[in-house]
């Protein structure tokens, strides 16, 4: 820093202000200091800055799996929001959400000096594993069913399922069949519960849901089973990937979508508009989920205390060509 100050003809304090992005330096001086930094190959020492400010400008992310579309989109949104706030992220996937693995992940992140942690593991899984989160570091969980123990952010799973089911009923379908995600997933259970409640409020028959595993292949198997029943005219599928498998099964079975059977998905993945026919689905705003996660976490970091709050991001129905009134 002293070398930069001598070359630029300024004080070390001015160099410090420029390197920290402070605004109380005029443009000409700032440009001269940056030119001296470039000429000398100077880079601010982040470790020294962290010791002085108590901030590492880093956020840890613990996640159970990277194989699901939702987790990947959420992680991408968190990384983008972190970068916009001037933070880096350290990703730590774990094989199983056990007390040992989650605690071990916290310890490893603490060693790498992060300011806060986002957990993309559903709270009921943490509860089942009897995981107690260490105190002393801000934490936000991506899951709207975490109760009052944590700060949480999630999309409105129940509202999305209600919108999907009500849309199909409004077209004149007497009931709506459901291809659900795995019972181990909170999001899946929340969507299934809302689907069932919506049918019950409408006085419609509630069929037994078929449980898949989020994959297109499990949707295909469920679709073959549903296609064999001529009474099936409307299907709400727990995610777009399974919906793709359902569409294939219906096509192969000679059931025309949407003339014979209407299909609604969930997630609004980028490829949903390219399905045949283009898929009516529920849009989850993963970018907003990520933004709110970082906003809530930085608020806790700034306040130097662990907060408890819930932020639910609305879901919306996206109408495309895979739904229509039932056949006459």
Automatic annotation (TrEMBL):
SMART domains: HTH_LACI (SM00354)
GO molecular function, one term: DNA-binding transcription factor activity
CDD domains: HTH_LacI, PBP1_LacI
Coiled coil start-end: none
Gene3D superfamilies tied to this protein: 3.40.50.2300, lambda repressor-like DNA-binding domains
PROSITE patterns: HTH_LACI_2
Record keywords, A-Z: DNA-binding, Transcription, Transcription regulation
Annotated InterPro entries: HTH_LacI (IPR000843), LacI/GalR-like_sensor (IPR046335), Lambda_DNA-bd_dom_sf (IPR010982), Peripla_BP_I (IPR028082)
Entry keyword annotation includes Transcription: yes
The HTH lacI-type domain, residue ranges: 1-53
Entry protein name: LacI family DNA-binding transcriptional regulator
